[in-house]
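Posting here for the record, re: pyridoxal-5'-phosphate.
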Amino acid sequence: MRHKGLFVTGVGTGIGKTTAAGAIAHLLRKNDYDVGVMKPVQTGTGAKAKNPDIAFLKQMSGSNDPVQLCVPYAFKAPFSPYHAAAKEKRSVRVAAIADAFNALLRKNDLVIMEGAGGLMVPLTKETFWPDLVRALNVPVLIVTHPDLGMIHQTLSTVMAAEMYGLEMAGIMIVEKAKKKHPPLDIKWLEKRTGLPVLGILPYTTSLKKGKTNYGRFRSHVEKNINPKAIIDFLERSRCSREHRLLEELDKKNLWRPFTQMREWQGENEVIIDSGFGTGLTDLYGKTYYDGQSSYWVNIHGHGNARLTRTLTRQAARLEHATFLGLGNKPAIKLAQRLLELAPDELAKVFYSDNGSTAVEVGMKMAYQYFRQIDPPQPKRTRFVALEHAYHGDTLGAVAVGGIEMYRDKFNEILPDVLFAPSPYCYRCTLGKAFPECSLACARKMEEMIEEHHSEIAAFVIEPMVQCPGGIITAPHGYLKRVREVCDRYGILMIADEVAVGFGRTGRMFACEHEDVCPDIMALSKSMAAGVLPLAATLATQKVYDAFLGKYDERKTFFHGHTFTGHPPACAVALENLDLFKKKKIIRSLEEKSQFLRDHLIRFDNLPCVGDIRQLGMIVGIELVKDRETREPFKPSLRIGHQVILEARKRGLIIRPLGDIIVFFPILSARAKEIKKMTDIIYDSIAAVTGSFEESIEII
Ligand SMILES: Cc1ncc(COP(=O)(O)O)c(C=O)c1O
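Prediction output follows.
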């Protein structure tokens, strides 16, 4: 698959973008391509709405596409698109440009687009040209001039493009006048930018205002620019040898998490090359919806410019300095913000870098706490956890994991843990139904704790939803009962908010649903919006105070990771929280999760759907062989796996937990995207389980 086109931008205004775009359009046409041309926003048309640029481009490409498609927006004032539109009390919609682009693409092999002004020109209040380029997934050609100042302007434009992760085809130099310019050091420019200079168009008189001599210009272009490099770039991009080599190396060298590697060797792997918004694009240019928020981490969409900018800015200023004996600005500021947001009694922040360590830190804190309080309670050595729990893969975290498959190989080296029944209503081990059961599972859990309380240090729990255990949503009141029983027996409560934290359940933290404050809270996954790994364990003042003492009393918490308090990760996490506020994410979630709920209702039509569980933006759809008896499918059928492969074919990436289909959309996903993704899940389940019913339009 070739690139869909090229976005021609310049290092400023009046640089020769139209000349370069026209030259490329002509060369492609001459090489038998049907070329669409586009000037998404034309500004400075004046009162007569003149549009000479697109007229020139159409001449050069031979396009006869309607002007409304080629120029979706035209404004009179010679300002940036955003400001020119605002002057006419109008605004530019990126989606409308994308629609016109796609319409042109249906009529042509590719589309050459020319931006207005330079690259960092605003299209709307919030978006710049690069946001459009990312959305359309086209490479950029940078047009520059040969005069004094070109190095600075060219390098600045390349750096801006890099910051947005734009793919760049190369640089084209266009002479503006017949005057002498300093000698061009092309090799140096290519080395510094890593980009090829695709051509130099010497000054031509054939483009004089108002009387363009097209014939002369065409031969001028043909004489001075060799189209091979541009065509090779456009054609090579999606099926190069490099891609095949990557696939080979992937299979040869890698060992994947939670994956049977023998089977994996025979499977087609999707290798992701880029991401934008809710989409992930593979090496071959196929774009999929990311229906799992890149394993439960992404909040604001891929390629969010504010997050990338924060990361780049902070990495350039201070990429890392150890937190052992030193502080750094973002880590200090972030701790303050986290404590402002977290339940009231949490007073201290201990950083690490993944969910397992955040939990492990909490467990070690709790264990050590009982050895250091006055009087010490050294008999409290055990932890309580729930069946079906998952808290990570380090040994302590595995010990409190209640999924047999993940722990049975390690049983003998794991600390002893007490497991209470999971509040898994669909498969209640007590054979009861909520609410008539009056939380019989909580009563069982309390009895177990009553019996062993003097040995128990902490109760580790995923508040409200046991996500990796199968999106098991706890019935109302369960979490509060856990807090009460911990209080009754002086047990510390560790809330693992790794998966459910940062808005996933509709609240900033899941504990808020039942107004519960844990003694220790583990955070990770979405903390840095899915951009960088980061984790924190928050503790109350009471817990922290037990670690205070003289140096030789050895009450220090002897734990720490090399990348603790990582400055770029903390800076991105701060930006994440700013975006939560600015975009009113939590407020938006009520409506969004209701919308999602409405779209899940029809899943009930599918005979193999046993249970649909949802809290906020977390969904689990449990597939069963027999709905009446709740008999599961034979594990060897791998129904869940088949459904996600089918969804992948239809353009959605999700991952099942056994036969539970998990949908964990990016929080910023729009209603239209949520609908599309749920439709794909519905159709995929229907196709795999043999009861196909085409999606029906609901909105
Ligand atoms: C609830 C919960 N706790 C802990 C973890 C472990 O996090 P990590 O994979 O970052 O170590 C996970 C990961 O999925 C999780 O869902």
